[in-house]
Write a structure and sequence with these properties.
This protein has 7 helices and 10 strands. The longest helix is centred in the last third of the chain and has 18 residues, at 187-204. It has a single domain, classed as Rossmann fold (3-Layer(aba) Sandwich), CATH 3.40.50. The protein has helices at residues 56-63, 86-96, 112-124, 129-141, 157-168, 187-204, 215-219; strands at 13-22, 30-40, 45-49, 71-76, 79-80, 97-101, 175-179, 207-211, 223-228, 231-237. It is 33% helix and 26% strand. The strands form 2 sheets. The protein has a 6-stranded mixed sheet, sandwiched between helices. Strands 2-1-4-5 form a 4-stranded antiparallel sheet, covered by helices on one side. The protein starts with 12 loop residues before the first strand and ends in a 6-residue tail after the last strand. With 243 residues, it is an alpha/beta fold.
């Protein structure tokens, strides 16, 4: 009787020989990503590090389906995205990815609750009763249920970032992309935000890819991917780095 070979989970992200050029076909054509290969498994918590101008933002935009690669394969949640039209890209992005930015990009005229509900409303094209309960549950999880009706201007920077995290998780995405999520915060608040992301990572096996210049934060991730001049020059797995 042959042994049963366990099947490995499908990677949440697989990049194959990804290139990205700007001003293609002109005398000033510039390639900024030079053949990126990268795999992220479900439940990983990885840092993307590198100097300014190394291509981190471009790579994050391609992973986030905000830009298309010039060449190569981008496979997200089992789907080859380079074959999708714009409508397919928009739907896959909304249902598969969460985004957290250094500057929260909350809608000033909306309450914290309405900001968290926004991805749900955009996906369905309307408001449904369960959306409020989902958003309130997420605000409770980030410690802000009592502030649900406050506008962003009434919240501190750390509180606004907590709302942004709740919003990023509204669709229960398998992958969250965080671009300098603690870059605008003091050390104590940054530690609290990091711990919050870690908690969701552990409890829901949400994969996080965190772009950061903060070596303290990068050292506490399970994996550090280093990008220099558009190439991955280091990929270190730290094991259980803890919080």
């Amino acid at each position: 009787m042959s042994a049963v070979v366990p099947t490995l989970p499908e990677p949440i992200l697989r990049l194959g020989d990804v290139h990205k050029s700007y001003n293609v076909g002109t005398p000033v054509e510039t390639e900024v990503l030079h053949g990126i290969d990268l795999v992220l498994a479900p439940g990983e918590f990885a840092a993307l590090i590198g100097p300014s101008g190394s291509g981190k933002s471009t790579l994050l935009n391609i992973i986030g389906l905000l830009e298309r690669p010039t060449a190569g394969s981008v496979r997200l949640a089992g789907k080859e995205t380079t074959r999708l039209d714009d409508a397919g890209i928009t739907q896959l992005r909304g249902r598969t990815l969460g985004f957290i930015f250094q500057f929260h990009h909350l809608i000033a005229a909306f309450s914290a609750l309405e900001n968290v509900m926004m991805p749900l409303m955009l996906d369905r094209g309307r408001t449904e009763p369960h959306m409020r309960e989902t958003a309130l549950g997420l605000l409770e999880a980030v410690g802000l249920k009592a502030d649900a009706q406050k506008k962003p201007s009434e919240l501190s920077g750390g509180m606004q970032q907590r709302v942004a995290i709740a919003r990023a998780l509204a669709m229960r995405p398998p992958l969250v992309l965080a671009d300098e999520p603690t870059g605008n915060l003091d050390t104590q608040t940054a530690d609290e935000i990091f711990a919050l992301m870690r908690r969701f990572n552990v409890e829901h096996r949400t994969t996080f890819l965190v772009v950061t210049h903060d070596p303290r934060l990068a050292e506490r991730c399970d994996r550090r991917i280093e990008l220099v001049d558009g190439r991955i020059v280091g990929d270190t797995r730290m094991g259980d780095a803890g919080t």
